[in-house]
C-alpha cells in the first residue's frame, strides 16, 4: 500500500521510464517531425494557438507565435530528439496523471515461470474483451499498462472495472513476455538461459514501431 505522495512518485517514475527510453526518443521524435512541420504550415495553426492562449488569459501577437513555432521546427529538423527532450517533463507529468486515475495491482509469476524485462520496459495494451491491441495510448479508457519489476513481479495499471488474478496464469505470462519483447528495442533481459526465450527474442524483438504501428502521434498520452 502506498500513501498519496508515494503514488505520485511511482507514477512519475513509470511515466519517465517509458518516455525517456532510446526507442521512444528515436521513433516518436522522428514521427513527430513531419506532423509538426505540417501543423506549422497550416494557416489555422497560429490562429488556433493564439485563441487557446487567449482562453487562458494570455494575449500573444500572432507573428511572435509564428516565429517561435518556426524556430522550434528548425531546431527539431536539426535534431529530431530536441522536441522529445524539451517535452519530457510535461509529457511525463501528463502520463503520470493518467496512471494515478486508474487502479493498480502487482501480479506474481506462476511457479517455475519468469517475466522478462526489456530496454523499453513500460508496455501498453488496449483490451477489447479477451483480445488486446498492443501499443495503445495511455489515456485510452481500456488501456492496460504493464511494467515487469522483477522476474517474479509485474506492476499493472488497469482500466476501471477490470481486475487481474494475483498470480498470472502461464498463458497470460507468455502473452506478457511476448508484449515485452515486441516493445523491446535492442535488449531483452532474463534471469535464466532459455532457448524458448531466445527464439522469442529472435522472432519478435522490436516488432512494434512507435509512431507507425504503436503510439502514433497524439496517441501516446
What this model shows, in words?
It contains seven helices and seven strands; from the N terminus they run H-H-H-H-H-E-E-E-E-E-E-H-E-H. The chain is an alpha+beta fold and 221 residues long. The protein folds into two domains: 95 residues, no CATH class; 104 residues, no CATH class. The strands form two sheets. Strands 1-6-5-3-4 form a five-stranded antiparallel β-sheet, covered by helices on one side. A two-stranded antiparallel sheet has the order 2-7. A hairpin with a 2-residue loop joins strand 5 and strand 6. The longest helix is centred in the first third of the chain and has 20 residues. The radius of gyration is 20 Å and the shape is globular. The mean pLDDT is 88.
Low-confidence stretches: none
Order of helices and strands: HHHHHEEEEEEHEH
Q: How many structural domains in the coordinates?
A: 2
Estimated structural class: alpha+beta
C-alpha end-to-end distance:
26 Å
Lay out the secondary structure:
Blueprint: H1 4-19, H2 22-41, H3 43-55, H4 62-78, H5 81-100, E1 104-108, E2 117-118, E3 123-128, E4 131-134, E5 143-150, E6 153-157, H6 170-183, E7 188-189, H7 195-204
Antiparallel strand pairs: 1-6, 2-7, 3-4, 3-5, 5-6
Helix pairs in contact: 1-5, 2-4, 2-5, 3-4
Amino acid at each position: 500500500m502506498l500513501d498519496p505522495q508515494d503514488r505520485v512518485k511511482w507514477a512519475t517514475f513509470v511515466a519517465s521510464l517509458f518516455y525517456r527510453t532510446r526507442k521512444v526518443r528515436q521513433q516518436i521524435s522522428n514521427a513527430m517531425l513531419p506532423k509538426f512541420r505540417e501543423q506549422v504550415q497550416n494557416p489555422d495553426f497560429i490562429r488556433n494557438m493564439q485563441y487557446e492562449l487567449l482562453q487562458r488569459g494570455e494575449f500573444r501577437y500572432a507573428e511572435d507565435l509564428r516565429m517561435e513555432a518556426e524556430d522550434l521546427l528548425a531546431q527539431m529538423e536539426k535534431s529530431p530528439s530536441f522536441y522529445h527532450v524539451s517535452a519530457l517533463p510535461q509529457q511525463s507529468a501528463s502520463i503520470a496523471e493518467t496512471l494515478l486515475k486508474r487502479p493498480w495491482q502487482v501480479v506474481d509469476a506462476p511457479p517455475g515461470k519468469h517475466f522478462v524485462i526489456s530496454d523499453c520496459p513500460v508496455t501498453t495494451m488496449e483490451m477489447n474483451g479477451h483480445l488486446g491491441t498492443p501499443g495503445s495510448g495511455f489515456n485510452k479508457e481500456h488501456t492496460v499498462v504493464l511494467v515487469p519489476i522483477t522476474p517474479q513481479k509485474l506492476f499493472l495499471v488497469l482500466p476501471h472495472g477490470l481486475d487481474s488474478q494475483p498470480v498470472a496464469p502461464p498463458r497470460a505470462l507468455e502473452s506478457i513476455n511476448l508484449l515485452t519483447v515486441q516493445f523491446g528495442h535492442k535488449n531483452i533481459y532474463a534471469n535464466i538461459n532459455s532457448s524458448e526465450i531466445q527464439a522469442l527474442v529472435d522472432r519478435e524483438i522490436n516488432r512494434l514501431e512507435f509512431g507507425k504501428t504503436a503510439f502514433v502521434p497524439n496517441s501516446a498520452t
